[in-house]
Structure formats: structure tokens, C-alpha cells
Design the sequence.
């Protein structure tokens, strides 16, 4: 090859820089979160920050910064959303990929992507005006804002991503598997549940992991239905998540105060959680590809 | 063929139950969407009027209006797309056309995936430290747009990349064979034939921006007053609520649910519009 024109070389470098921007952003976010999150953890002490049972950041004489209730609420909330949302999502995905008449699938698919597109505040608003009063009335509670309300809202919000990914995984199952099963005398539903679902296992696992990530990361919708008192989690009590713990105090905490720094520390913990889930997710996807 | 018979009634029942479960779940999913849309429209449509959409809120006259929020939303969409589009398309071009090293590609793709998985609350924190404080932009729509540009980067990269991959190799070889340099080939052959993916990516990114609340609440401000978009100074300093933030402010801080549901109706309408546009763009712009 002859000498390359300078324009070619400079464009190549420019494109390389664009590619590296994503990497730079990840590093930047990590560095800033660590830098902003560590001071408060150091001041409060790692153990009493992570395992302290009381969060009382605005107490003037004796502020407490224990985020155990927030961590547990986020974990229980995500687990609850998975327990409620994944079965419905998986069954809908099987319906979409295998059982639905083409015309009905053609209607349901845009409906799922519309569900994915609805802004989280709209889910929060509907939850606030329908779900919360309904829970209060049915269960005879003093207030309906509770972990249960948040779990139900989260379950609806993770549905589209669970359905989307699982349906894609189910559609990618080789036809021969299913034809072999049908030829051996299994009925269609038996084939879907006993052949297609196990064959699409890794894709479905990725869908669940994505659902967990979305449930842990969601803020606005649950801010509107969970009540936001930093109680230890209990299904019918008002609770505060990691995300809402940041959200509820962010606009009021004075710059430079320990309270504000502690909010960044919560952010750091949340970030570590999400990174852990992302790594698990990319591992399951990779292992699925190798098999 | 003889009529098929179930080997046993128990197995028949099992199959029927499985089928029923599938239909029930699908009905529940579809029903949820219909219920949410109907409920929001039922409570929101009565409050929607031309005056609500085309004026700012007036305390003197006691009327609600969301025109400033509509402008703010448009401004944030346009600005964040302007920033993210060259970066995202460039990154996708690098990944599909230039990258030789597998490790570097894997690293960039992992970074993009990570960015896609980071919750918006984290972006809000980063936006607050990085753009509002460190760069001294304060709480402005500009700071919000910059933060959202980082957030939507993976969306643009992925959509462009998918589309670049479908450009036939023969196109590239044809261009190179005629003596075009690599950049000229990308500019005149590859990018024009993957315009569908780029447009789809933009629409999806716009959808994420429209739906985003947490980031904008903490980086772009809560004001519902009209901002000055006519001067550069005004554009830099504009600070206010987009539609989603306005919804939150109405619902949670003022308990004005009529206005909140009206904003929600507008947002639902926008979501439907964006979804339609995305699927149309994919269909209409595809070459051949």
C-alpha cells in the first residue's frame, strides 16, 4: 500500500477517539463516584455505614448514617419484583414466541415495547393514585405506601425487558429440537416447556439478570409509592431504597455537608451492586454463547 | 389420519392448564397496558386544552400550562442528540470498520454495555458532581443535556453498529476497488446505506430522554417558568423542568393530580409517537 493521505489517518484517529469515549466515561464515572463516596464512608466507618440500622441524617445532635435498611430494601424489592414479574414475563414470552397466532403476536409485540417506553413517573403516578389507595383499602392499612406497592410497580416495570429478551432467546432455539420433540410424541405445550425453555436457559437467565438490574436501579416510580421512611424492610411498611435514599435528600442536602457526602456514598454502594450484576450478566451471556 | 387421542386424561389436563397459563399471562400483560393507558387518559384528557399546552402557568389567572416544559423537553432532546450523535456514530464506525484489536473492541463494547446498565440515579449524581459543580454549569438544561448524552451513548452506538453490520461487503469492496480511501468509502457508501439505523438510534435515544426524570430533576432544575431561548446567554443559563419532572412536581410536591395526569397523557402520546416513528424509520429507510 502506498503512503496514506493525512486526511485518512486523522479520520482514523478521530474514530478511535470516539470509540474510546465510552471507556473514558466509564472510568470517569467510577473515579468520580469513588472520590465523592469515600470521604463519608471513612468518616462514618465502613462497618457502621454498611451495617448500621438507623439512617437519621438530619438529626442535628446525633446524625446516624447506617444504610442497612436501604440495602435490604433494595434487595428485597428486586427479589419481590423478580418473583412476581418473571413468571408472568416468561409465560408471556413463550406465548409470543411459540403459542400466539401471528396476528395476536403482531398486536402484543408493539404493546410490550410501549410498556417499555412509558416513562417511570407515569408508572409512579398510576401506582400512587390507584395501587396505593387500593392496598390501603384491601389490607386495612393506615397508609398504602409500602414495600408491597413498590414491588408490584417494579414487577410491571421489569416485564417488558424480561419478555423481550426471553422471547428473543426462545425464538433462537433451533427448530430441529422442537420438531424432534414433537415427532417423539410430545404435545406442543410439553415441547415449549420441556425443550424450548431449557434450550433458551442462558438467554432467560440474562433476561432475569437485566430485570434485577432495572429493579435495583429504578428510582422515580418507587419514590412515589414506597413512602420513603428508612425503616427496616417489611412488606406493608413504608420503606426507602438505595436509589430513593439518594433521591429524597439530594435537593435539600447542603453542599459540603456530611449528609450530602453520605448520599454519594450510597451512590457508590449502588454502583457496586449494579457492576456486580452487569458482570454476572455478561458472564451468563458469554457462557450461553460458548455452549 | 386417525383422530389424535390424548394418552391419558391427566396429561390432557396438564396441557390445557399450560396453554391457559400462557394465554392468561399474555392477557395480563396486554391488559395492564390497556388499563394504564385508559386510566391515564380518563383522568388526564379532561384537563387537556389548547390553553394548557400553549401557555405558561399563571398564578394570577389561576391557570395551569406546560408550554415551558414542552420547550425544555425539546431543548434537552436536541442538545443531547447533537452531542451524542457524532460520538456514538463515530464509535460504531470505529468498532465495525477500523478496529483490528479484539481486546480493544471487547473493552469498548463492555464499556458501552456498562453505560447502558448504570441506573439513572447514578447518572444524576455524576451529572451533579461533574457538570453542575466541577465544570461550574450550575443546575441548567445544558448540564442535564450533557449528562443525558452520556446516558444515551450506548443506544446510538448499538443501533448504528447493528445497521453498519448489514451493509454488504461488496459495497465496501466496490468503493475501495474504485480507488476510494477508507474515510471516503465510509462517508459516501457505508454511512448513507446505514441511515436507517442511525435514525432509529436517534429516535430511541429521544425516547429515553423524554422518559428520563431523575437525571434532569437534579441537574436541570425544577422551575416551571418560561426560559429565555432567544440568546446564547439564555440557552446556556436556561434551567427548568421537562415534562416528566413537571409531572413529578405536580403530583408529589403540589398534589395537583389533574395537571399531573394531563402531563402524563401528553407523555403517553409522545411515547406512542416515538414507538411508531422508530418502527416506521426501520421499515421506510431500509435500502433496497
Sequence:
Amino acid at each position: 500500500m502506498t503512503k496514506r493521505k493525512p486526511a485518512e489517518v486523522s479520520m482514523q484517529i478521530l474514530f478511535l477517539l470516539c470509540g474510546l469515549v465510552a471507556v473514558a466515561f466509564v472510568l470517569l464515572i467510577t473515579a468520580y463516584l469513588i472520590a465523592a463516596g469515600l470521604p463519608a464512608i471513612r468518616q462514618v466507618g465502613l462497618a457502621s455505614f454498611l451495617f448500621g440500622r438507623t439512617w437519621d441524617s438530619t438529626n442535628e445532635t446525633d446524625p446516624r448514617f447506617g444504610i442497612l435498611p436501604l440495602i435490604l430494601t433494595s434487595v428485597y424489592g428486586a427479589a419481590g419484583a423478580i418473583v412476581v414479574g418473571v413468571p408472568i414475563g416468561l409465560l408471556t414470552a413463550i406465548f409470543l414466541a411459540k403459542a400466539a397466532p401471528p396476528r395476536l403476536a403482531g398486536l402484543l409485540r408493539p404493546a410490550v415495547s410501549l410498556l417499555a417506553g412509558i416513562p417511570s413517573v407515569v408508572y409512579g403516578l398510576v401506582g400512587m393514585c390507584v395501587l396505593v389507595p387500593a392496598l390501603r383499602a384491601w389490607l386495612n392499612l393506615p397508609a398504602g405506601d409500602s414495600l408491597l406497592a413498590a414491588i408490584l410497580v417494579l414487577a410491571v416495570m421489569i416485564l417488558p425487558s424480561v419478555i423481550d429478551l426471553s422471547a428473543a432467546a426462545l425464538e433462537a432455539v433451533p427448530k430441529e429440537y422442537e420438531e424432534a420433540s414433537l415427532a417423539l410424541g410430545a404435545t406442543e405445550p410439553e415441547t415449549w416447556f420441556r425443550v424450548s425453555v431449557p434450550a433458551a436457559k442462558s438467554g432467560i437467565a440474562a433476561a432475569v439478570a437485566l430485570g434485577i438490574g432495572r429493579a435495583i436501579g429504578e428510582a422515580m416510580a418507587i419514590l412515589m409509592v414506597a413512602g420513603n421512611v428508612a425503616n427496616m424492610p417489611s412488606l406493608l411498611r413504608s420503606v426507602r431504597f438505595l436509589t430513593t435514599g439518594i433521591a429524597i435528600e439530594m435537593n435539600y442536602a447542603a453542599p459540603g455537608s456530611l449528609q450530602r457526602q453520605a448520599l454519594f456514598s450510597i451512590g457508590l454502594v449502588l454502583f457496586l451492586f449494579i457492576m456486580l450484576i452487569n458482570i454476572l450478566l455478561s458472564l451468563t451471556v458469554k457462557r450461553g454463547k460458548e455452549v | 389420519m386417525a383422530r389424535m387421542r390424548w394418552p391419558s386424561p391427566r396429561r390432557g389436563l396438564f396441557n390445557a392448564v399450560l396453554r391457559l397459563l400462557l394465554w392468561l399471562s399474555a392477557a395480563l400483560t396486554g391488559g395492564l397496558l390497556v388499563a394504564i393507558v385508559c386510566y391515564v387518559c380518563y383522568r388526564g384528557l379532561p384537563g387537556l386544552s389548547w390553553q394548557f399546552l400553549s401557555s405558561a402557568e399563571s398564578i394570577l389567572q389561576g391557570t395551569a400550562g406546560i408550554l415551558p416544559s414542552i420547550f425544555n423537553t425539546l431543548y434537552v432532546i436536541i442538545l443531547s442528540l447533537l452531542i451524542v450523535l457524532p460520538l456514538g456514530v463515530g464509535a460504531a464506525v470505529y468498532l465495525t470498520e477500523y478496529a483490528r484489536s479484539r481486546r480493544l473492541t471487547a473493552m469498548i463494547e463492555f464499556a458501552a454495555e456498562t453505560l447502558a446498565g448504570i441506573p439513572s440515579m447514578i447518572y444524576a449524581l455524576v451529572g451533579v458532581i461533574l457538570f453542575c459543580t466541577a465544570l461550574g454549569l450550575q443546575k441548567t438544561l445544558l448540564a442535564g443535556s450533557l449528562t443525558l448524552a452520556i446516558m444515551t451513548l450506548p443506544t446510538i452506538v448499538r443501533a448504528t453498529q447493528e445497521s453498519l453490520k448489514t451493509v454488504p461487503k461488496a459495497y465496501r469492496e466496490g468503493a475501495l476497488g474504485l480507488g476510494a480511501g477508507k474515510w471516503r468509502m465510509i462517508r459516501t457508501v457505508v454511512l448513507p446505506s446505514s441511515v436507517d439505523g442511525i435514525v432509529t438510534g436517534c429516535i430511541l435515544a429521544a425516547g429515553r430522554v423524554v422518559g428520563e426524570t431523575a437525571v434532569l430533576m437534579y441537574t436541570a432544575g425544577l422551575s416551571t417558568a418560561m426560559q429565555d431561548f432567544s440568546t446564547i446567554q439564555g440557552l446556556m443559563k436556561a434551567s427548568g423542568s421537562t415534562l416528566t419532572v413537571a409531572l413529578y412536581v405536580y403530583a408529589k410536591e403540589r398534589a395537583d393530580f389533574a395537571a399531573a395526569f394531563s402531563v402524563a397523557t401528553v407523555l403517553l402520546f409522545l411515547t406512542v409517537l416515538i414507538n411508531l416513528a422508530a418502527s416506521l424509520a426501520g421499515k421506510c429507510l431500509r435500502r433496497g
Observations:
- Residues 103 and 109 of chain B are 10 Å apart (CA to CA).
- Chain B touches chain A through 87 residues (CB under 8 Å).
- Residues 11-47 of chain B form one domain.
